[in-house]
User: Fold this.
Amino acid sequence: INDKYFNFDDNTTDEATTGYDISIRSITKAGDEKYLIAFPSSARYRNQDVRGGVLRINPDGSIDEEFLTNRGEGASFGTQKAFRDGDGKYIILGTFSNFNSNNCRGIVRLNADGTVDNTFNAGTGFASTLYGNNFNPNSIVHLDNGKYLVGGGFDSYNGQSVRNLALINSD
Assistant:
């Protein structure tokens, strides 16, 4: 059953014309009844090409154009997880090596408006020799002490040896 809340037409038989035509990796509340969606690097949403691996939608399901503009070109490759932290900023995890032309291997923090938060320093980011140089951070939790615990497939973060689990400072 299609939900009119997201303007899906009950008479539509082709879901791809109204929703996503590619697998969604994660959805998180983005505040103000909006939602942040992580997906592979490019997709179609409501008959519109969207790229960059992360998109914010309004309560009616329409694309938040301001966020899309501020986000710029987005992720250079796929995203796995979109997460809103306690400060109203977003952590994006994935297999990308840059986000909106900023070097950030596998992790980036965005401000609420979609711009890259330059106060977050991921250093050299994630890397892996175990998985054929394919790193894949894909889960995260914001700890009470302000740090992030990140899990996935990787063997180093910021040049330090870690195996599939990294504790990251919030700055």
